[in-house]
Design brief:
Elements: E1 6-9, H1 25-30, E2 36-46, H2 54-58, E3 63-75, H3 80-102, E4 107-109, E5 112-115, E6 118-119, E7 121-127, E8 132-141, H4 158-184
Parallel strand pairs: 1-2
Antiparallel strand pairs: 2-3, 3-8, 4-5, 5-6, 7-8
Helix pairs in contact: 3-4
């Protein structure tokens, strides 16, 4: 059983529109084969037609921000529920890292992070015919957001942001590996 999660932080700015959440996008754009979690920074503009969340689509919602830190993951041989659990664990760990990096109190509700009631994050998990997919975005500059939002740029420098992203990716790779090891080290019981 392979337990490695490949990670990559692209220094090239890239916009996120929604269709990037598809099978093999990470492979085709970033040459990361297999289970992978990549990060990049750039604007976000997801129109209603590209939303994966049916509740949001039926409400004609959209997602916008002048700049976000985008985490995009693809996982093979997983069930949707597993990746939803990963999403929640990811959100909880992000909350801890962001709180430590900013010195501010952050709240988590499900897969969303908030500061004083203002939304910091967006996230969705979905399933493709060959993989499970996740997008998790943290506002850097929330300008244009359709909700009351906050951005990390008011709390940290770009260098601190990049260090945070690298720390998150390192944590995710280690956690993924640790879970994989836990799955193969136990003896079955009958």
């Amino acid at each position: 059983m392979r337990t490695e999660l490949k990670t990559y932080f692209s220094s090239e700015a890239r916009a996120y529109f929604g269709p990037e959440l598809r099978p093999h996008f990470i492979l085709s754009q970033y040459k990361q084969v297999g289970d992978a979690l990549i990060a990049f920074v750039g604007p976000c503009d997801v129109k209603t037609d590209h939303l994966v969340d049916w509740e949001d689509r039926l409400n004609s919602d959209s997602i916008r921000a002048a700049s976000m830190i985008h985490f995009l993951g693809e996982f093979f041989g997983t069930e949707l529920r597993e990746i939803v659990f990963f999403q929640r664990l990811f959100a909880a760990q992000l909350r801890a890292f962001v709180q430590e990096a900013t010195g501010e109190k952050w709240d988590r509700s499900g897969d969303d992070l908030y500061w004083n009631g203002k939304k910091l994050s967006v996230s969705i998990v979905t399933q493709s015919p060959v993989s499970s997919l996740i997008h998790f975005g943290l506002n850097w500059d929330p300008a244009g957001a359709p909700v009351d939002a906050v951005g990390l740029s008011q709390f940290m420098t770009v260098d601190a942001r990049d260090a945070l992203v690298k720390r998150i990716l390192e944590w995710a790779a280690n956690e993924w590996s640790s879970v994989g090891a836990a799955c193969v080290k136990v003896r079955p019981v009958v």
